[in-house]
Design brief:
Largest sheet: 7 strands, mixed
CATH superfamily of the largest domain: Aldehyde Dehydrogenase, Chain A, domain 1
Strand order of the largest sheet: 15-18-19-14-13-21-22
Shape: globular
Structural class: alpha/beta
Strand content: 15-25%
Number of domains: 2
CATH architecture of the largest domain: 3-Layer(aba) Sandwich
Number of strands: 25
Radius of gyration: 25 Å
């Protein structure tokens, strides 16, 4: 069977979908969580279709997998009222718990979440078309992140459990919560990246409103009971619906203290402007990127091709950390292109449950039309598709297209494609890719491939002032989660790593007193009798 024929037959018959993966499909989600109560919704619902199409009578069609509530402004403001009440200006139960007590709640949450792993993973696979293997990895990585966050908070609290005496002033410096946090995650990592904001926000004592992503909403259904049972009422509120309908009222209320958004910069800019008290709003934003790879003349081509393949096409390139444009030294351009095109066409593609599948259908509705438009624009301006069948579309499936030569003026040169279209440029002078990065509106990461330490060093020094991570002979990526994850320019605001996230969702606060006998007696009494959870020297093991 030819490559084109394989693409034309990529979707299975409905009867060929493994029975074990069709449990509870389609799944009608009617619940949402407000003020410690799972409420039932009998209003309008959003129908959910998987990126996986099913062939019926030889015709592939979108496969329905469920529906979720389309709540209104009324329910959104009810969630806000619950979160505001639970925080109660910092006087609520949750923000006044000790660190050890909040950690205990989080340990229970992990235990209960693990019980729901199979359902969460399957819904994740169905909703966004991520391979079953990678869906399992996303779940496992999320559990690891939560455990690492608890360990990091213990370390932070141990450091804070001592007193500092300076210039006759006794002080104890700890971190306190900010207030009500609005969390919105992305469709490409709807579990992991959403919880990398929600978990540190919670564990630092904030209350939270979670709005799941449009693609990746159903997977939160098995978690509603978990959040409801583990956390005090109003601490976690989960609402569904059209973002344009339910999010602006929350921001305009002025009741949101922290906006945690991983998504689009245009959305972030609009929401920030809606807040009536911008100086009271803290923003934690993970936004777009156009991460380049620079393949130098002396690069190990086997390594460069493999890492660029992973960097460009892991989860179909639907990652902010994906490599989205490749700069190749002119002397090795032909050999690199030949090897890279061959590697792309050799990558296994198919349905997400198939073993070792690499390329799967793209998640967003209308995405194949957008990607096809990028390719058409590039071809009209002199580029060619260098890999066989590149850009071939079948329903929600888009076979990766390698474009060369790409030049300024083409849409793909600047636009973040967020999908399997790979632009390649040659360069004669290393200043060309550097100038590209200088003039880019994004500044997240870059990958450099080469062997000469002197040349690498000369590139590292200017590039660290353009991006926040320089990868040597490896693809761009987020992890390990202890490393800082952020960006310059329009790519990010705030830093998300295990320890940085604890700081970004809290503020340093201290108790201070002059070193007098009276103050010493007061502090000693409070600490000795455990009268305060903030002013304390308890040491968490």
């Amino acid at each position: 069977m030819s490559l084109i024929e394989k693409i034309e037959n990529v979707f299975p018959q409905a009867s060929e979908i493994p029975v074990g993966l069709r449990q509870d499909i389609p799944f009608a989600q009617t619940g949402y969580l407000i003020n410690g109560e799972i409420r039932k919704w009998d209003g309008p619902q959003q129908q959910v279709f998987s990126p996986v199409w099913a062939s019926i009578d030889g015709l592939p069609k979108p496969f329905p997998i469920g529906a979720y509530p389309l709540l209104s402004e009324k329910e959104a403001l009810q969630a806000l009222d619950a979160a505001v009440s639970a925080y109660d200006h910092g006087r609520g139960l949750w923000p006044t718990l000790s660190v050890a007590e909040r950690i205990h709640h989080m340990e229970r949450f992990v235990f209960r979440m693990l019980e729901q792993k199979e359902r969460i993973v399957q819904l994740l696979m169905w909703e966004i078309g991520k391979s079953l293997k990678d869906s399992n990895k996303e779940f496992d990585r999320t559990i690891l992140y939560i455990n690492d966050t608890m360990d990091a908070l213990k370390d932070l609290d141990r450091i804070s459990s001592r007193f500092v005496i300076e210039e006759g002033i006794i002080g104890q410096i700890r971190r306190a919560p900010m207030g009500v946090v609005l969390c919105m995650g992305p469709f490409n990592y709807p579990l992991n990246e959403t919880l990398t904001t929600l978990i540190p926000a919670l564990i630092m004592g904030n209350t939270v409103i979670l709005k799941p992503p449009k693609h990746g909403a159903l997977l939160y259904a098995p978690m509603l009971d978990v959040f409801c049972d583990v956390f005090p009422k109003g601490v976690v509120n989960i609402i569904y619906g059209e973002g344009r309908s339910i999010i602006p009222p929350l921001m305009m209320s002025g009741g949101i203290h922290v906006l945690a958004l991983i998504g689009n910069s245009n959305t972030a800019n609009v929401l920030k402007k809606l807040h009536p008290r911008p100086n009271r709003l803290r923003c934690v934003l993970g936004l777009e990127a156009k991460n380049p790879a620079i393949i130098l003349e002396d690069a190990d081509l086997d390594l460069a091709v493999q890492e660029c393949l992973l960097g460009c096409l892991s989860f179909n390139g639907q990652r902010c950390t994906a490599l989205k444009i490749l700069f190749v030294a002119s002397a090795i351009k032909d050999e690199f292109l030949s090897r890279f095109a061959s590697a792309v066409n050799s990558a296994p593609f198919g349905m997400p449950w198939q073993e070792d599948v690499f390329i799967t259908p793209v998640a967003e509705k209308g995405k194949t039309d957008y990607l096809r438009g990028l390719v058409a624009d590039a071809l009209a301006q002199g580029a060619t598709v260098v890999n066989e069948a590149g850009g071939t579309v079948n329903g929600s499936f888009f076979f990766p297209a390698v474009l060369y030569p790409v030049s300024e003026g083409m849409r793909i040169y600047r636009e973040e494609q967020f999908g399997p279209v790979i632009p390649v440029l040659q360069f004669n002078d290393i200043r060309e890719p550097i100038d590209y990065m200088i003039h880019s509106v994004y500044g997240q990461q870059v990958s450099i491939f080469g062997k000469d330490p002197d040349q690498m060093a000369q590139l590292i020094d200017p590039l660290v002032n353009q991006v926040c991570r320089v990868n040597i002979n490896s693809q761009c990526q987020r992890g390990p989660d202890i490393f800082p994850f952020t960006g310059r320019k329009d790519s990010a605001e705030g830093t998300l790593s295990v320890s940085d996230a604890l700081r970004v969702f809290s503020i340093r606060t201290l108790i201070a007193a002059k070193q007098t006998n009276l103050n010493k007696e007061i502090i000693t009494s409070i600490v000795k009798n455990h009268q305060s959870k903030f002013l304390a020297t308890d040491f968490i093991l």
